[in-house]
TrEMBL record:
Entry superkingdom: Bacteria
Species, as recorded: Hyphococcus luteus
Pfam families: TraU (PF06834)
Protein name, UniProt field: TIGR03756 family integrating conjugative element protein
Amino acid sequence: MSRPSSSTLARPLSMAKPMLRGRSLPLNAPRRPAVNKRVCILLYVAAILAASPFAQPAAARDSITTPEIVAASSNFGCMEWRISGACFWLDCGITACSVEVSIKVSHRSPSLVVSAYDTAGESPWVETRALYAAAQLTAHKTQYAAQGVNMNREMPGGKFVNNTNPNREDTHFKSADVIGGPGNIATIASGFGLPLFCPMTDIAPLAPYFLSGIDAIAWTTGTTELIYAASWVPGLREIGDRSLTNPLGNTWGPLFPRFGFLRNPDDVKSGAVIAQRAADIVYKSGQPHIYIRVGNLPGRPDGGMRVWEPGELRENDPDNSVWQMLVPLTEDECEAFGVDDRLKANAWSDGKFDKADYTFNLWRPYSCCEDEGIFITSIDF
């Protein structure tokens, strides 16, 4: 969360006489543009960008580049921008103080790019594959070598065939990466002189928040996850509506244990569940994994905004988070994983399988106000 700057806090309150009946500004102070005009311009730009080629789905692909992710992140269909409240500020000059009001806006932003893929070191995101693949493969082999395990053989990945137990043939293993998203709605908006978008102050672009190869033992064995009840109790944390009180409900798979193995005949849904597992880790503190918690690295500048950042990730809750597929299809819609498609003519996974590698944009909700002085409080509509 951004805080008022030190220069703001240093304003001479002791020399000021509060005048809270209305705005008190010097005669030569520049006038701010009318809020309603600013909002109209903003909505006009949003309509143009939403109809642009950036927002259109592409053909199936097995990889994606950073510019393509940035283009897909300019998707106002996933954003759901709205005026959500107001902020109140104390603005003091040499002789007087006044209470200022600024609009509070809320919208989703593409905070993280999460990939789940079969072959270790072969992320669909081209640039991060070049940056992090070698380090992941080396760390993976080193951790197992320290335990006396020979990892010269091929690392786990893909669908497993068990000749002695056919019931286990639906088991998949996928590596996973969680990387700071390169697309920033606030940066795009600033190019039009529009401040009413929230910067992702908790996200460092291209930062490796989680690389399963670095977390090799925990990700391949799941032993560190056994401390959680959800790893033992079916229905406790499912991607879908199955629960302890609804045992016959729909499920794509359990969130726990958060490791690379999952039993599900649907490879696309397996990739989605494993992506949710990896993202769940990085939004929490003190997890039994090797990772960087979101918010522990310097994020984007606040740009003169007070920002309310999203909290921990929750599954099955579109108000908390939604996903946009980038690979193998770049979609223009976002949704929470876990949709019940059992009675639908077309399954959720139809047309989305290419090479069993998947990349998603994770959109999280942010709220913000333009900084007008010393923060007093805010209200939500």
